[in-house]
DNA sequence: AACACATGTCATAAAACCTGACACGAATTC
DNA sequence: GAATTCGTGTCAGGTTTTATGACATGTGTT
């Protein structure tokens, strides 16, 4: 996995931050977790730690729900996405990689 | 400020995460704040919220201290940096901007 | 009418964080 | 060499945040 992807998958955010970033309630976030739409890590004391990818995912979930999809629908949508992107890098990943070198110069994590 | 810079400056991390990311102790982090080497935001209840830039900064501080610089030395170093980068965008920012459009396609925050 | 869904709300407990104070070893200054 | 400064450790006491589980509710579906 690339630097950038790594960073996006770091479990660093408490639920409070995610709440502010997504404008969802704790209840909603936990409910989506309960239904396996997201699977945040847990810190030492058992508290949830979300990644930026989780935040993305939650915003997607929000859109889908607003669009009338049910939780189960969304589960299937995500499942299809997962199956489709198995194995070979998709174009997004390819693009990302092509710019990786440049960005490696930028930002502390890349130093 | 660009999308990317915005994101780097979002105050999203609690001190526990920063502790894990930097391997500093709470005491150290607070002491550096007390000496104005960093100025994290505060959440609603008064708890510190750090940005990714803050994390960068803390890692720099660590390096400087390891290299034998004192807190005051570091204050001056940062002050000089600040003065130098006032006004016009530096090359790093320019590079960032040039790649901004591409990256706007990638990741939720850019959608 | 009964039920499923997505969410609100409340109680209770644990974890994380806050500030302030005192201690301490290693340098530095008097 | 005694006193001071610096960066950090640690502890106490209080506040904030998060966790789980249960019950409630409105909207739509069988």
Automatic annotation (TrEMBL), chains A, B:
The lineage of its organism: Bacteria, Bacillati, Bacillota, Bacilli, Lactobacillales. It comes from the Bacteria. This is MerR family transcriptional regulator. The keyword Magnesium does not apply. Pfam families: MerR_1. Residues 12-80 form the HTH merR-type domain. Gene3D superfamilies: 1.10.1660.10. Keywords: DNA-binding, Repressor, Transcription, Transcription regulation. PROSITE patterns: HTH_MERR_2 (PS50937). GO terms for molecular function: DNA binding; DNA-binding transcription factor activity.
């Amino acid at each position: 996995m690339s630097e950038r992807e790594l960073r996006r998958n770091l479990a660093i955010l408490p639920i409070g931050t995610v709440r502010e970033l997504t404008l969802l309630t704790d209840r909603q976030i936990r409910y989506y977790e309960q239904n396996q739409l997201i699977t945040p890590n847990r810190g030492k004391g058992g508290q949830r730690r979300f990644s930026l990818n989780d935040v993305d995912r939650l915003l997607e979930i929000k859109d889908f729900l607003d669009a009338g999809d049910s939780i189960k629908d969304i589960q299937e949508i995500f499942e299809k996405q997962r199956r489709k992107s198995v194995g070979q890098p998709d174009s997004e990943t390819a693009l990302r990689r092509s710019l990786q070198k440049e960005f490696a110069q930028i930002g502390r994590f890349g130093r």
